[in-house]
Structure formats: C-alpha cells, structure tokens
Amino acid sequence: MDAYRDATLKEYLRAYWNSLSSSYEKMRCARSDEERRAWASLMTNILGEDRKRVLDVGTGTGFLARVLAEIGHEVTGVDISERMIEVAREISAKEGLDIEFEVGDAERLSFEDERFDAVVCRYVLWTLPNPWRAVREWVRVTRPGGRVVVVDGVWCDSSLSSRLRSALGRLGMLVHERCNPFRGYEERVSMSIPFINGVEPEIVVEIMRECGLRDVRFQWLDGVRRLWLANLPPLFKIAWNRPIYVVYGVKP
C-alpha cells in the first residue's frame, strides 16, 4: 500500500470511528459489573498481579484501559479517533481513574522502544489495514519479558446463518438503539481490511509468532461472551453470539 493511499484510508477510518464515538460505549462495552469483573480476572490471570505499565491500543472509549487501571496498572490508551479519546477521558474522569489517553495510530506508535511492560488490545486487529505491521509495532514497544495480548473474534462468514445473524443485528440496532443499521465501511475500504469479518485465533497465533513473540497461546472466552450476551436485547443475543478469544505471547 503506497503512502498516499495509506494516509487516505486512515483518514476515512478516523472519520468512521469518530462518528461512532457517542454510541460505542453502550454498544460494545460491559453491561454489568459481573462482566467487568470477568475482564479484570482475565487480565490479572494473563498479566499477573504486580503493577505494570500497560498500553491499551485502539482503546476506543477506554473500557479495557479502565479495567486495567482499576486492578492497579499504570495505563496509557491510544486510538485513531479523537472523539473516542474525548469520551474515554470523560468517562475515566467520572470514575476517578488516572489514565493517560492520546490520539495515535495502532500501526505507527509514537512511543520509544521497550516503553511498556505489556500491550493489550480488544476488538482491534480486525479493524486494521496492516495487522502484521501493527503487531510488530506492539512488540517493538514492549520490554523483553513483557506480554502482548490480543482479544478478538470470528464475526461472520459467507454462510446463510452468518448473513441471517447480520440482518437480525441490523434490525436490533434499528429497533433498540435507534441508529443507522446499514452504515458500515464503504466496499472499497472493506476490501483493504484483511480481517474485516474477524480472524480465527490460529491465524493470530501465527502472526504473533512471525513478529517474534514466544510461548504464544490462546483461549476461547466463552464465559465473558455469555455475560455480555445476558444483558443484550433478544435480537442482539442471536446476531452477536459469535466466538471471542484471547491470544497472548511473551517478547524474548
């Protein structure tokens, strides 16, 4: 991808996610204290209990950053969307959490090498034009012995059941959330996003190994998914009942 096309695509993505900033927290983040505790437990199991300097890449409205701050970590959150960052700052301030948020590109981080003890992301890899480049960046800013943690999902495929789920999801958005259910990436943009439909965990494992991580492993997050689905409207429970997982590895 040439530099001009890359820059143009990033501007489109920035504008797209800016437009979703007012509804993202309600749609994509934990809807119960129990689910939030489940995310906290997952992060503690992977990162350990001692205080770490953690970068949350593609932080959105800062949900995972807030979870990490609550369990005692020093957290920085970055996102390409200025408006997402604004919302993240507002929510974190209301919750009394000290988190550093800044605008940044997940594929071209501004931080120096080995700045963080861990890099985490939640539902980000599938949005990126250059996921391999992104993971290399995440590895670069992680100190030796630190971990890179990727949470993502397998959102849809070409099957009839996936198309039906997508249609029900759009109907649910129209009925329950009163937002445009047909607005997504333009087709030309979707064609530039390798994992637009989500990505199988085995592929993420291979990407992380290719980018230099060791002891890479993954686990399905069925328990977290059930807690999230439990608090969704009925149509959403059908449409968004898709597998999610975490993949993590250690920088040598």
TrEMBL record:
Residues 55-150 form the Methyltransferase type domain. PANTHER family: 2-METHOXY-6-POLYPRENYL-1,4-BENZOQUINOL METHYLASE, MITOCHONDRIAL (PTHR43591:SF24), METHYLTRANSFERASE (PTHR43591). This is Methylase involved in ubiquinone/menaquinone biosynthesis. Coiled coil: none annotated. GO terms for molecular function: S-adenosylmethionine-dependent methyltransferase activity. It comes from the Archaea. Keywords: Methyltransferase, Transferase, Ubiquinone. Gene3D superfamilies: Vaccinia Virus protein VP39. It comes from Geoglobus ahangari. GO terms for biological process: methylation. Pfam families: Methyltransf_11.
